Amino acid sequence: MLRVNERPYPFHEGMRLGELADRLKPGADILVLNGTPASRDSLLQDEDVCALIKIGEIPSAIDMQHTLEARHGRDVQRLFKKASVGIMGIGGLGSAVALSLAKIGIGKLILADHDVVVLSNIHRQHYFIDQIGMKKTAALKKTMVRVNPFVSITALDVKLTEQNIPELFGGVDVLVECFDDPTMKAEALRAALQHLPEMGYVGASGVAGYGDGNTITCKKIKAGVFIVGDGTSEAGDSSGLFAPRVGIAAHHQANLVVRLLLGLEKNK
Amino acid sequence: MKRVKIQCNGRQQTLAEDTTLAELLDDLGLPADSVVAEINKKIIDRDQYATFKLSSGDQVELIRFVGGG
User: Fold this and answer.
1) What 3-state DSSP class applies to A238?
2) Domain holding A121: CATH number?
3) What is the DSSP letter of B44?
4) Which residue from B38, B45, B69 is facing A92, i.e. has the nearest CB?
5) How far is A260 from chain B (nearest CA, A)?
6) Pick the CATH number of B3-64 from 3.10.20.30, 3.40.630.30, 3.40.30.10, 1.20.1730.10
7) Which residues of B touch A181 (CB under 8 A)?
C-alpha cells in the first residue's frame, strides 16, 4: 500500500510517480517521494509516501481534516474540531497561541484585541512589516486563514473589560488570557472565576526577559484554572519582552488548552 | 490593641484590627489593581478592597499579576 497525500492507495509493481499524479492530481506541479522532490518517471516501491502538489491550491476541508487526523489521531482531532477557545489579547502571547491552535485545527477561535500593528510589535508578535497599521484582529485573521482556512475565526475589535468578558466569551470551552497589562490580567481572572465557573482558563504572568526558560511553569490555581509564567519577570523599561521566552509561555498556554480540551487537566 | 490572625497564601499573619484588604495589599507592597483576592473561597470585587475588613480566621489567597504578554 502507498500513502498518497495522506491517504492509502493500492500499490502495483512497476508504478511510476507521474502515472499516479495523472490519475490522482492531474496538473500537479511538484511530486514528492518520501519527502524529496522526485521526477515523473521515479519507480515506486510498496509503502512509499507520495505528495502530489498543485502550487497555490487550497486543500478541501475533508483533506485538511483527514491530514490532521492522520497526524493527531482521529478521536483527538474530532474533539479539536468541535472545540471553541477564546483568546483575550493577541500580542506576543495571544498571536502565538492563536496560530498554534489554528495549526492543530481547533474548530472555533474567538480573538479579541483593540490594538493596531506597530513596528515595535514585530520583534515578538506574529505580524509582518506589511501589516503595520492594520488592526491586529484583521491582520492575525488573515495569517490564520493562510494556515488553516477551515477554522471558524471570530475576531472582535473591542476593548475587553471585566464586565464584557463573560458575555463575549460565554460559550467557549477554554479561555486564554494573553494581556500585557497586569490590571487587565487581574480583571480577566476575576471575571472568569466569578462568572464563568465551568470554563477552563489559562492566564499568564511573568514572561519578560531572557531568564532560564525552564522557570516558566504552569501553575494550577484551582481545577481547570492555570497561570503560566515565572510569576515575577515583569516587562518594564529595563527588561523587555523577548520572542523566545514569550513564545515558551505562549506554547505552554496552548498546550494547556489541548490538555484541558482532552480532559487531562481535570475541569471543575 | 486587638489583633486579628489570618492565613495569607498559606502563611499565618497577624494584623491590626479593622485592617482592610487594600491596607493588607499595601503592606505587602502589592499594587491592588493587579491582584485577584479570594477570601474564604469568595472572589472579592475590586471596588470592595478599600472597605473589606479582615477578620480572624480569614483564609486569604492573593494572585498577583505582573505585566508583559
Assistant:
1) coil
2) 3.40.50.720
3) P
4) B69
5) 21
6) 3.10.20.30
7) 67
- Residue of A178, A181, A190 lying closest to B46 (CB–CB): A190
Please provide the average confidence, as pLDDT, over all residues in chain A. Answer: 96
Residues A72 and A98 sit within 8 Å (Cβ to Cβ):
no
CA-based nearest distance A125→chain B, Å: 10
CB contact under 8 A, B67 and A181: yes
Q: By residue range, what is the domain housing residue A169?
A: 68-261
- The reported pLDDT for the residue numbered A268 is 47
Q: Which of A37, A57, A77 is the last residue of a domain?
A: A57
CA–CA distance, B56 with B4 (Å, rounded to integer): 5
Residue A180 to residue B35, Cβ atoms within 8 A: no
CB pairs under 8 A between A and B: 75
Q: Is the pLDDT of residue B19 over 90?
A: yes
The backbone torsions φ and ψ at residue B34, rounded to the nearest 5 degrees and listed phi first, read -105, 20
Whether the pLDDT of residue A267 is over 70: the answer is no
The DSSP-derived string for B24-41 is HHHHTT--GGGEEEEETT
- Distance of alpha carbon A248 from the chain centroid: 14
If we measure between CA atoms, which residue out of A159, A194, A171, A66 comes closest to residue B46?
Answer: A194
The whole-angstrom distance between B31's CA and the closest CA on chain A is 9
State the Cα–Cα distance between residues B28 and B53, nearest whole angstrom. 16
Burial of B64 (0-12, 13-18, 19+ CB in 10 A): buried
Q: Give the residue extent of every domain in chain B.
A: 3-64
Mapped onto helix, strand or coil, the DSSP state of residue A39 is coil
Q: A18 and A115: one domain?
A: no
Interface predicted TM-score (ipTM) of this complex, two decimals = 0.96
